[in-house]
Each structure stands twice: as structure tokens, then as C-alpha cells.
Amino acid sequence: MPAPDLPQYHVQGLDYPMAYTATGAGPAVLLVHGSLCDYRYWRWQLPALGARYRVLAPSLRGYWPAAYTRADPRFNVEQHARDLADFIRLQPGASPVHLLGHSRGARVALELACNNPELLRSLTLADPGFPAAGDPAPPAFHYDAVRRLEQGDIEGALAEFVDTVNGPDTWRRMVGWFKTMVRDNAGTLLSQVREAGLPFDMARVQALECPVLLLGGADSPPRYGRRQDTLQAVLRDVERAVIPQAAHGMNLANPLAFNRCVLDFLDRHAQAGPLMGTGDTTPRPLK
């Protein structure tokens, strides 16, 4: 299955030129990638979701095509959430979006949802990558990966990280385009390590009123399921689904099931309102 061509656009109006790709027309769906990834991570979601929706997939600050190669204080969840809030407001015909985040991107998405609930129609969290207060200490793989990276062992660092989040031997079995993307973003680990083990205050999500979908891979490491258990217990309007024959990278391992599940949720929670079309990809000035 050939990779689709992903056009690249840049937002003008932020304090840096955020890169993103976009396709389709209709209510907006915003996809937020996780660690070591960028907008290319969503290559199998863009055509499927774009058949019914306006799909926007940005690369977060510090990721490819302008990836940080050293630790930078601007790389943090709060900054990424602020960037995305501005990104939504800058879109032509801006309206509330369906927000979907994966892994670390799910934490960014949840931060945005708590800070700016008016910008959301719905929220989907796929294997959210953060502990709750009181959870057992997470594995120390962030530190091990960074140590290898600082020693010049880039392949070893990436294998350590990817195999820990998705399962043993994942890195060796990954396809070429995925490895290229991850290598392009290897330096982001030098900044991300400062977030390792940082818990999320679950009391913040109790006020969320938008519908929420929690997605997990059937073969994901158990800690991701425990995080969803915690979220499910406190969210007001929540659904939960499992993607079969998939681990943490569920949207790549089983894109048909992932896309079908997401589209079913989006279709049931679509709302009338301004639509984002394909005719103008130039963001509005931020006021």
C-alpha cells in the first residue's frame, strides 16, 4: 500500500512556522501525534477521515521538519497545548474541532481540552501516555534512551524507547518510512526526558463536558489500560474501545479498525456549524 502524498503547509501568526498537512472538507478533525513522530504518523488516517471531514495534522513545536537537536525549554506539554489552541483559532472558518491525540499527544490533547473546552466538539485519547497521581513509578526507559543518545548510540536509543512503549522487537520490525520519521525526531528526547513520570491531575478532567472516546490497543503494555481505567472513572461522557491485533501503534498496525472506530464516534457526535473547506489553506492572522 503506497504512502499517500502529504502536502505541507505552514501557519503564519505563531511565533514559529508550525508545519502541518490537511485534507478533506467538513467539520474539523485535529490529529496530535506522540513521541518521536510528526504529522507523517497519520498517513493512513488522512485519506479515510478526510473523505468525510476536514483533517488537520500538525507537527508539534520542536518536531520535524524543524526538529530540536538539543534540550529546549520551549518543548513541553503546556506550550504544545497553547500552540494547538492558537492553530485552531487561526484556521479559516475556525470552529470547534474533534480532537484526537495519541500517546504523549493524548496528554497534549487533554491539556488543551482542560484549558480551552470551547474549542472542542469531541475528544479521542488513544493509549494516553501519562501517569495519574498515585500510579506506580513508570519504567526508566526515557533516561536509558537519552543516555544512549548522548553517547551517540542513536539506533540503540530509539530501539529502547520504541520497544518499551509498543513491545519487544518492535523497532527491528518497523518499516522504513517509520524509522526515518523517528530518526528525524530523535533529538526531541533530550527535551522530553524532563517530562518523564510527570503525573496529570485527574481532578481537572471532571469538568469536561464534551464526549470522550478512549482507545487502546489489544496488545498494548498494561499501563496504558490502567490510565484509561482512571480516566473512565472520572469523565462525564465517555466511551471506550479496543483495537484488535494492535499494540500501542494501533493506527498503523490496524488502520482499518482504528479508522472505522474513530469515524463511528465522530459521526455520532457531529454537530451543525461552520465547516472548514479546502479552498483556502492560509490561516487567518491571530488577533
Automatic annotation (TrEMBL):
Biological-process GO terms, alphabetical: acylglycerol catabolic process
Keyword set, alphabetical order: Hydrolase
GO MF annotation: an example: monoacylglycerol lipase activity
Domain AB hydrolase-1: 29-259
InterPro entries attached to this UniProt entry: AB_hydrolase_1, AB_hydrolase_fold, AB_hydrolase_sf
GO cellular component, one term: membrane
Domain of life of the native organism: Bacteria
Protein name stated in the entry: Alpha/beta hydrolase
Gene source species: Candidimonas nitroreducens
Highest classification ranks of the organism: Bacteria, Pseudomonadati, Pseudomonadota, Betaproteobacteria, Burkholderiales
